[in-house]
Amino acid sequence: QVRVVESGGGLVQAGGSLSLSCVASGLTFSLYDMDWFRQAPGKEREFVADISWSGSSTNYADSVKGRFIISRDNAKNTVTLQMSSLKPEDTAVYFCAARLRSSSVNYWGQGTQVTVSS
């Protein structure tokens, strides 16, 4: 059974930092590209960042570029999103997704809440 579990969310003041982790189990982690998305209240889910299976390629939404860093550890089946210089508009539920390369197969976590106070 595939499981994708996010952790590390919480309440932080504007300008602060937070690190989110995502652990995927029940799959061959190195075959999957990994994504972070977020969804704010009343808004659609939006792309935040992704990282290729090897970690050699990353992409970021313009809104987080230069502030967030995505990384992965294939030995630990873990992907991390380091968030800094947080803004109130970063407040959202953050979701991790495992996306099988060259396939439409993907698995989502249940999300973790990030709240940035002004």
Essential attributes:
mainly beta, 0% helix, seven-stranded mixed β-sheet, globular, 118 residues
Can you walk me through this structure?
This protein is mainly β. The protein has strands at residues 3-7, 10-13, 18-25, 32-39, 46-51, 58-60, 68-73, 78-83, 92-100, 106-108, 112-117. 31% of the residues are buried.
Secondary structure blueprint with pairings:
Layout: E1 3-7, E2 10-13, E3 18-25, E4 32-39, E5 46-51, E6 58-60, E7 68-73, E8 78-83, E9 92-100, E10 106-108, E11 112-117
Parallel strand pairs: 2-11
Antiparallel strand pairs: 1-3, 3-8, 4-5, 4-9, 5-6, 7-8, 9-10, 9-11
Gross morphology: globular
**Could you spell the SSE succession in H and E letters?**
EEEEEEEEEEE
The helicity comes to under 10%
Which structural class should the secondary elements be placed in? mainly beta
**Tally the helices: what do you get?**
0
Beta content comes to over 45%
Span between N and C termini? 40 Å
Largest sheet: 7 strands, mixed
Mean pLDDT: 97
Instruction: Pick out the low-confidence regions.
Output: none
Radius of gyration: 13 Å
Summarize the structure.
This protein has no helices and eleven strands.
